[in-house]
Amino acid sequence: MASDYANRLALRRKTLLLKIQAQRQLLSLQTQHVGEQIAFAEWSFQAGQQLIRLVRHKPLAGIAVAAGVVAVKPARLLNWFGTSFRLWKIWRQMAPLLKQDQSQS
């Protein structure tokens, strides 16, 4: 009887370990995708900061950027702003989790 119980426990343990391994692999794939989005958001943010600095120091560059924005199709520009906004929202949601994960490491 004890042997039967031990066998069931061992089988249950193996099942749980396989389930954990599958969940870890899935989480790894999901976080890789999020990491790529965060990297793009960080790049966009840095590019925006550089652009703001450039416009502050060289107002003519700001006029050139504004002319470039007008030349780009407005629908494409709105689509880009929408994508940037969604990435920013994802970053705001994920940043505390990433900081928490780094502090635990």
Average pLDDT reading: 82
For the record, give the distance between the C-alpha atoms at the N and C termini, rounded to a whole number: 43 Å
Helical proportion? over 70%
| Cα Rg | 24 Å
Percentage of β-strand residues: under 5%
**What characteristic shape results from the CA principal axes?**
elongated
Please trace the helix and strand order, writing H or E for each element. HHH
Number of helices: 3
E-strand count: 0
Structural category: mainly alpha
List low-confidence stretches.
none
The major beta sheet can be summarized as: none
Count of the separate structural domains: 1
Question: Any key phrases for this structure?
Answer:
elongated, mainly alpha, 3 helices, 95% helix, 105 residues
